[in-house]
Write a structure and sequence with these properties.
By secondary structure, the protein is an alpha+beta fold. It has helices spanning about 110-120, 130-135, 165-250, and strands at about 25-30, 35-40, 45-50, 70-80, 85-90. It starts with about 20 loop residues before the first strand and ends with a helix.
Length: about 250
């Protein structure tokens, strides 16, 4: 196919596009960070070579590999219709850029990449949101917020949770524990005060006993001195009397 005969009407759908897994040489018409757009001779549609399909090694930016106007070998690895647009996917790493030889003749790499792309597609339309679950009504018990398969009640019976009572029990336990802790603290403080008072009393008693013992010892010493002095006086008097008696005999 060629454009030399003038503009031909664009085919509808996937008709008139290069066959899947075919190899041809095209021209790079646009380079983006995520890939490069390549136009094949004889076709109006452009195909995207994603950065993951440019080289076997990791590529951060398509401009590192190709430039606008450059001729590259490509392999058609995908054709699909999204809405009103037809998208073509090309691969450069599956073709030898020097000779145009197919490096993936069994299309193993192409199939693996296709599976990977399907796994990473957005599946938000098939997700069940929390709001949808809350708005559902169980056909078994008639309550809202759960499915019939998750219902645990018998038909016709309805149960409701009582969070206030459940919350009241831990609050009471907390209050009881706090009161017990405060009582223990007060008891400890009282014991400490009593121990301090007893220590002071013992110190006072020790001081008093020491003072009493010192006073008693001093009084005993005084009495002993008095007795000793009294005995001395008696002995002196006796000696004097004896001297007088002797002198009277001699005379």
């Amino acid at each position: 196919m060629s454009d030399s005969d003038g503009p031909a009407p664009e085919p509808a759908g996937l008709d008139g596009l290069p066959p899947l897994y075919s190899i041809s040489k095209g021209e790079v018409v646009s380079v983006q960070t995520y890939g490069a757009f390549v136009r094949l001779p004889g076709y109006k549609k452009e195909g995207l070579v994603h950065v993951s399909e440019m080289s076997a090694t990791r590529v951060e930016n398509a401009s590192e590999i190709v430039d606008v106007g450059e001729q590259v070998w490509i392999k058609v690895i995908g054709k699909e219709i999204r809405g009103d647009k037809v998208k073509l996917s090309f691969s450069m790493k599956a073709v030898n850029q020097g000779t145009g030889r197919d490096l993936d003749p069994n299309n193993v790499m192409a199939e693996q990449d296709a599976r990977r792309r399907k796994q990473f597609r957005d599946q938000t339309g098939n997700r069940i949101t929390l709001e949808a679950v809350l708005n559902t009504t169980c056909s078994k018990c008639g309550c809202k917020g759960h499915f019939t398969k998750d219902c645990f009640s018998a038909p016709g019976l309805q149960y409701a949770l009582l969070p206030e009572e459940d919350d009241a029990e831990p609050r009471q336990q907390q209050q009881q524990t706090s009161t017990v802790a405060s009582q223990q603290d007060s008891d400890k403080k009282k014991k400490k005060k009593k121990e301090k008072k007893m220590k002071k009393k013992r110190k006072r008693e020790r001081k008093e006993s020491e003072s009493d013992s010192s006073s008693s010892s001093s009084s005993e010493c005084k009495t002993k001195r008095r007795r000793h002095d009294h005995t001395r006086d008696r002995e002196d008097k006796k000696k004097k009397k004896h001297k007088k008696h002797k002198s009277h005999k001699h005379s």
